[in-house]
Structure formats: C-alpha cells, structure tokens
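User: I'm curious whether this sequence folds into something compact or stays loose and floppy. Could you predict its structure so I can see for myself?
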Amino acid sequence: MAVTANSHATDAAVEILQLGGNALDAAIAAQWVLNIVEPQSSGMGGGGFLLHWEASARRIHAWDGRETAPRTNSPDFGARVDGSLLPFLDMLASGKAVGVPGLVATLEAAHGKYGKLKWERLLAPAIRLADNGFPISPRLHVLLREDPLLRRDPAALALYYEATGEPKAIGTLLRNPELATMLRRLAREGAAALHRGEVAEGIAAAVKIRGGNLSADELRDYHPREREAVCGSFRRWRICGMPPPSSGGIAVLQILGILERSGLAPGGPERPDAVHRFAEAGRLAYADRARFIGDPDFVPVPRRDLLAPGYLERRARLLDPQKAMGRASPGELSSSLSQTDGDSPELPATTHLSIVDREGNAVALTSSIESQFGSRIQVYGFLLNNQLTDFSFAPGRDDKPAANRPEPGKRPMSSMSPTLVFDDKGQLHAVLGSPGGSRIINYVARSLLALLDGNMEPGAVLALGHVGNRNGVTEVEQGRIGQDLVQELARRGHDVRPLDMTSGLHVIVRRGGRWLGAADPRREGVARGG
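Assistant: Here's the prediction. I'll summarize afterward.
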C-alpha cells in the first residue's frame, strides 16, 4: 500500500513495489516524483525525516535529514547591516534563509543500507515525468497564482508563468528538462551529484546572489544522522516517532500520555470532553516543546524526562475537565537545563508519504523545503529551502539561551511527525504523518486518537474536522467543526478561532489482516495497493 500527496507519486511507488522493490525503494521513487509535481513542498533542495521499519530484523531506523545552518550562521542572521531585522517575507525569499539540503544524502544513505533495487532504477519514474511533463493541477495553479514572491526568480518565472506573469493554466503540460538532467546526474552519481562539483558550486553562488553565505564545502561536508526513534505507550499500543531535532515524536507522545492519565475514556475524538482535553494536553506539550526541544548535537534535550510516566502524570493533573487553563507553562525538570522559551513560525508547505510493502517493511517520510516554494531560489530545475526561518527569532533572554537558537552547523527544530504504531504483540499496525507546520503535531495526535481510541476507518479519520491548541488560542477547522462544539469550548473558557487547516495526512492501517490506506481529502493525495 502506498499513500502520497499526488497520483503520479503514488503510481511511481506502486511501480517500484510491483518490480519487487521494498518500501524504502518505493518511498525514494515517490519522493523524486513529488519534487516535480509538488515543487512548493519538498525536493532535492530541502530535507526530511524518515522512519523505516525493517520487518525481518524488527528494527526501526530513524533518519534525520534535516538541513544544517551554514558555518557563518549567528543569532542575528536575519538582520540588516544596520542591525534592524529583515521583514519576514523578505527573509523567506532570501539566501539568508537557506540551509544545507539534506534529503538527497539521507535517502542515499538509507538506500545503501536497506534498499533492494538499484538506485538508478528508482529515479526512472521521475526522469520520465520531468521529460514528458504532467498537467498542472488545480492546487498547484492556485499556489502559483497566489504566491507573491516566486515570480522574482527568473528561472521559476520562466518555468511556471506566462509572459504576462500569470501562472500557466490548469491542465497545461509542464515539462522540466533542467530537472530531468539533474535527476539523470543523480541516478549516475548519487548524492555526489548535488553535494560536490558544479552543482554544489552553483547552489552556493545562487544563495550568495540572494544575500546568503552557503559554501560548496558545506554541501560536501553534510552528513545525515541515524538516530534512535522515540517510542512510548498509549493504552495497549506502542507508538514511535522522530526524535529531536524534530519535536514531533515527543510532543505527540506527550499529548497522548497526558490524555490517558487525565482519565479520558476510550471513544471517538469528536466528543466535547475529548476535544477539550485534547486542546488542554496540546497546551502543555507545546509549552514543553518551546522550552526544551532543539538539535541534540548542540543542546541537552531531556527526551526521557519529558516522557517519564511520573512527569506525564503530574502534567495531566493540571487539566480541569470543565475549564480551560489558559497559557500553559513548561514543566519543571533538571535545574541544569538553564534554557528559555524560543519558538518559530514554522510554515506548512511540506509533504508526507506512507508505504508498506508485501514483506511488512514500512516507511513514513515527511519532507519539506519549509514555506510554500521554499526560498523561491530555483537552481537546476528545483527550489532551495528556507528552513533557517525555523530557528527561534528570540535566541534567549535573561542570560538563558533558547534551545532552538541559531548556531553554525545546527539543525533547526521541526514539528514533522512521521509515525509508526505497533500493537501489543509487536506487529506493525499503522503508518502515518502529515504536513502542516507546527500544527502537524496536533493533526497526527488527533488522528491517532481516532484510529486507536475510536477504532475509525482511515477515510473517516481523515474526514474529521481539525481541532488543536498550540498553547494559545484553540483552533478549529472552519467549515468542518459544528457551532455546537465551538459554543461548548467557549463555555469552558477556550478562546476559539476558526481557521483553514489544510493538513495532508496519509494513513495506512491494518484491518482484518489487510492494509487499508487513505489520503487527506483536503489535498490531491492518492492511496493505492500494489
């Protein structure tokens, strides 16, 4: 079963599975197709987090392909010469926001250990599509039309827009021969095609022209990290996610652990009591996230303390079943952690894919170039990320640094939450994840409640209206949450804010010995069995 954000990518994954490739092979093939058909979301110019379940060894491999900050990065990297901060929109579309891309090197490293088909075979679907073209989808057309920054880049302007500046029409066949050439190089040379030589020099030059300072040497020196997955229990299930620098795994487990200890009875997540408690648990988890999570190679992250049963019990006692608590404070941990809060405006242009193969291997991959169309710097047919905007814009206060402060070579905190679920016999039960910026945590946690507590079918899970709290207002999805629930939340003291909440959840779950898949109805995703 393969579920991705676009039918072309799902077709590529199924093609590889039918050729005898494993879940990792299929994920790699789908990812490069997504680079073509979803240029706004992910690709060679960005990074990602990969959870891989190796069924025969019964092992989870957690690959950190997050971008790194240049060696020249500093807490004032977003400042002008006179010390004033660049406007945020100007920062988004500048070289200052570009981190060293990590996705290509990460997928190559994972494939070298666990792939089955030859690397070059996995590039074939993407090369074919870049050469032959694909019809521009309604979603891509709207994003191109509404983006105020992408037209500034001459290469992107020529590829995606007419001479009038209007985006190419829905259904127009979009070919990307420059990216096809780059994909062929990647097929022949592997990650070296991006991280060394002419392409690395070209990336560095493009970033410098737009005000950044990324060197070709930094591309050469990038290394993915294979880390230990973060796992915890919820009722009879074992749930595993990404460790820091992603905050997703810890925060999802905190929300579920707090809810279980708060006395929430199993049942559907749409019940008013469940929604209230979910929002309150979210306040607590996001408060801890802002205080304690950062790149573990730079700051001590108390991952075990944050998930300790006694700590979750203490946090759960803060929930009042009838009254919203208002803004939550982070919990009290070791006095040696002299850090202060530091959050970021993490933006939602990301993608997720979920795949299970016939041997039971699985991949949950969430990848991103950060905001819609990343830095709006196009090179060799693909867009570069602007992930450095995920660092805290308040690097610290009162002589206490923020865990997510900018530093040279550091990986910014993320909310990406690729997730694997196992039953009480250790069998893989579900694979899921979502784009959505810092809301990803709430999207994934509430979907897990619907799957595991509500025993809902995957399609019904993804049709649920979103609700969540990121330690501020309680957000409800406009048009999908009824007024009765809004009024009940307000009665309990929530400051309720209706919003568009465009998740991109892709779920695979075991039901009756079969894998069922579903794609989020809010986007263009497709689920297919192979």
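Summary: The first strand starts at residue 2 and ends at 4. The two ends are 6 Å apart (CA to CA).
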